[in-house]
Amino acid sequence: MAAAKQSIIVTGGNGFIASHIVSDALEARALPAHHFIGRFTDRLQSGYEVTASVRSEAKAQQLLETHPEWKGRLGFVYISDLVAPNAFDKLFDNRSYDFILHTASPVSFKVDDVKKDLIDPAVQGTLGLLQSAQKLGGPRLKRFVLLGSAVAALDSFEEDDVAGKDYTEDDWNPVTVENATERQDALLGYNASKKYAEKAGWDFMEEQKPAFDLTVINPDIVIGPMLHPLPGPSSINETNKFAVHNFMNGTYNAIEAVRFPFYHFVDVRDVAQAHILAMTVPSAANKRILLVSGLITPQLVANTIREHFPELKPRVSEGTPAQILPKGINPTNWDVSRSREIFGKDWKYRSLEESLVDTVHDILRHEKRWDNKTGEKAAK
User: Which pTM value belongs to this model?
Assistant: First the structure.
C-alpha cells in the first residue's frame, strides 16, 4: 500500500515563480529520492498534495483555465488581505502540511507609498504566516521555505562603477526603511521589503523557536517562461517585462541608455527547483541560499535575441554589440557555492542564452494568442 503523499501549501500560487513551484510539486520534478536522507527519506516521486493560496476564487479559476490539467489535483485557499490579523489562519482549517512555501509578496517598481505598498505587506505577510504556522501547523510541519531575494544581501549604496568583494549569504543590505520612505524610492523600497521580511523570519525563529525549520531562497533577477495566467501583455511579470519583453515591444529604443536595477539573473525553473529541493534536503535547514546564474545586461539581452531570432531584428535595437556592460557599470559578483553544496552534484544553473531563448519563444507564443483575441493586443 502506497504511503500518503506529503502535503505542501504555496502562497501566492498564481504568481510567476509560484506557478512553476506548483507545477514541479504536482509532478515532483526534482532530484531522485536517493539524494535525501534522515527524516525526509519518505519523499515520493509521484508528486505532492498541493494547495495554493490566492486572493479570490476568480484568481483560482483563472489559474485552472490556464492549466486545466491541474483540475482535481490542486486545492485552493482564498486570502484577500495578506496583512489582516490572523489572515493565514484559514490555511489550516481542516488542513495540515509537511511544508510551507511562502512566495506571496509584492514585486512592483510602480507604487504610491513604498512603506504601505511594499515594505509593510512583505514584512507583515511573512510574520503573519509564521505565527499562524507555529500556532496551527502542528507536529506534521517540517519546514517553512521563504522566497526572499538577493537584494537582501547586496549593497544598495555601492558605487556602480567599482566591483566589490563577491556577495555571500553572510551579507545584508544596509538599506533602511527610512532610506526608502524619505526618498519614496520604489527600488529602495523593494530592497528594504525583501531585507526586512527575511529579517523578520530569522528573528521569529530565534525568539519563538518553533518546531519547524526555516530556509530562505534568495534569487537575483528571475526570468524565464511563464506559467501564470497571461490574459495580455500587461500580465507579464515585472522582471520578464524589464529584462526581456521591453526589448521586443519598442520600450527600449537605445540600448546604450538602458539600465537594469541589478545585473545578475537566474532562471525561474531553477528557482522553482530550489524550492522543491529546499523542502527536503536536510542541509538546507536554517540556511539562506543565494541563487545566481550569471551576468545579465541590456546589451547581452539584445545580442542574444537578435542572434537567435533574426526575424525580431526590426523590433530589437542593435545597440553596440561589443559593449557588454553599460558605461559606468561594473557590478559586484556573487558567490553561490552554498547552493551547489546544498543541492548537490546534479545542481546546475541554466545559462542566460537558454533562459532568454526559452523566454522569447514563450512571449512569441503568447503574442500569437493575444493577437487572436479581441481584447488586449500585444505591443508591436
Answer: 0.93
